Amino acid sequence: MKLDTVIAERKNKVIYREDNLVAKVFDESFPKSDILNEALNQARVEETGLNIPKIEEVTKINGKWALISTYIEGKTLAQLMDENPDKIDEYLNMFVDIQINILSKTAPLLNKLKDKMKRKICSTNLDAATKYELHTRLNGMPKHTKVCHGDFNPSNVIITPDGTPYVIDWSHATQGNGSADAARTYLLFRLNKQDEIAEKYINLFSEKTDTSRQYINEWLPIVAASQSVKDKPEEREFLLSWVNICEYQ
Ligand SMILES: Nc1ncnc2c1ncn2[C@@H]1O[C@H](COP(=O)(O)OP(=O)(O)OP(=O)(O)O)[C@@H](O)[C@H]1O
Ligand SMILES: [Mg+2]
Known about the structure:
Elements: E1 5-10, E2 13-18, E3 21-26, H1 32-46, E4 55-61, E5 64-70, E6 75-76, H2 77-83, H3 88-103, H4 113-122, H5 128-140, E7 146-148, E8 157-159, E9 165-167, E10 174-176, H6 178-191, H7 195-209, H8 213-218, H9 220-228, H10 233-243
Bound molecules: adenosine-5'-triphosphate and magnesium ion.
C-alpha cells in the first residue's frame, strides 16, 4: 500500500488512504499487543453485523505495525456538527441511536469492561484509599454483556453520502454495562469543553434508554479514573475532580 495520502494524524499514529483502503500506521512506541488487540476487537465486532470498516490486513509497513481496513467514504459526525451547528439536535439524536444499536449487540469473546476498569484503577497513581473506594464501587455495579465501544464520540462515526452511519476505531471496545459507555461519552464531551452538548447528550441517552442520570453518574468516578491513566497533564485536574466525587456520595 502506498502512503501518499494522509487523512488524519495523531500523536503516535498516522492514517493513510489508498483507493478503497485505509492504513492506520502506528509509531514504534505503540505496544504491539494493543495494536493486535484493536485488530481482534474490530474482527469480533464485524461479526455482530454492525456497520463498521472491515479489517483487511494486519501488517508492517516500513518497519511499523499497520492495520488495513476498508475506507468509508463520508464525513464524521464531528465534522458535520462543526459545519452545521443548527442541526446539532438532529445529529445528537442520530449519535445516541447509533450507540443504542451498538449496545443492543453481544460479542461474548470481547474483553470484559469490568476487568479493564479494574486494571485501569490499579494502574492510576491515586492514593490507596481512593483506589479502594473505586474498586468497591466497581464491584457493586451490575455486570452486563453489551458491546461497548469505549471511545464513542462524534469523530468515530462516519456518515456516508447516502446517510448510512459507520462506526470506526474499536481499539477500546469491551463487553459490559451500557451506562459505563454513556458515562465515558459524556466525559469525552466535557473533556472536549462541549459542556452544553454533553448535557444534551446525556439527557437524550437517559431518556431513550429509560436509564436514570444518577445510575449513569455512578460510573463517572470509575471512567474518570480510567481516563486519568492516559496521563494528559491538561486533563488531570478535571479528571481528579470527577474521581473525587465518590468521596462525598
Ligand atoms: N476506515 C476509515 N474510513 C474513513 N476514514 C477513516 C477510517 N478510519 C479512520 N478514518 C479517519 O481517521 C480518523 C482517525 O481514525 P481513528 O479514529 O481510527 O484513529 P484514532 O487514533 O483513534 O483517532 P482519535 O484519537 O481521533 O479517536 C477518523 O476520525 C477518520 O476521519
Ligand atoms: Mg478515533
